[in-house]
Write a structure and sequence with these properties.
With 153 residues, the protein is an alpha+beta fold. It has five helices and seven strands, in the order βααβββαβαββα. Strands 1-2-3-4-5-7-6 form a seven-stranded mixed sheet, sandwiched between helices.
Length: 153
């Protein structure tokens, strides 16, 4: 377990990332879509590497006051082992060190386990977007607000 670490995504990770996205999301991105996201200036891509290669990844965008998570996917066989939580804790720590307040993520209504996971990680659902993903499929915006969490303590 000591080989586990969060690091930047590199090109050799792409096959594993694309496979995880296909297996772990309802709307998988192609290699080209992931690379296009990665090339944009404010976007960052990280992986959770267990020493044998990436077993989870996150794609996120930095803005002045928040980090917006576009993707957070853990490989099916490694779920429910604290890896997604570790990645969110890493991103929460980034908020504190970079002077940002919020982590924001939009979730497809069909992804109930993701919604429950975010709730367990102190995210709150703050908004519903009708037909966000396709007609008849809503999306929910979840936020982790550092300031509100500090007030709650």
């Amino acid at each position: 377990m000591s080989d586990n670490r969060i690091r930047s995504l590199v090109d050799r990770d792409m096959d594993a990332i694309v496979e995880m996205d296909i297996c772990g999301t309802v709307d998988p991105w192609s290699r080209e879509e992931i690379m296009k996201f990665k090339r944009l200036r404010r976007n960052l891509c990280i992986v959770y590497d267990n020493g044998a290669g990436p077993i989870a990844y996150a794609l996120y965008t930095m803005s002045r006051r928040e980090l917006t998570i576009a993707r957070l996917v853990v490989d099916d066989v490694h779920r429910r082992r604290g890896i997604g939580t570790a990645m969110l804790e890493w991103l929460k720590a980034k908020l504190q060190t970079q002077g940002r307040r919020k982590l924001v993520v939009q979730v497809d209504e069909r992804m109930l386990p993701v919604q429950q996971f975010l709730r367990d990680c102190d995210f709150l659902c703050v908004q519903t977007y009708r037909d966000l993903y396709e007609k008849g499929v809503d999306g929910y915006e979840f936020q982790y607000d550092l300031a509100k969490m500090a007030d709650a303590v």
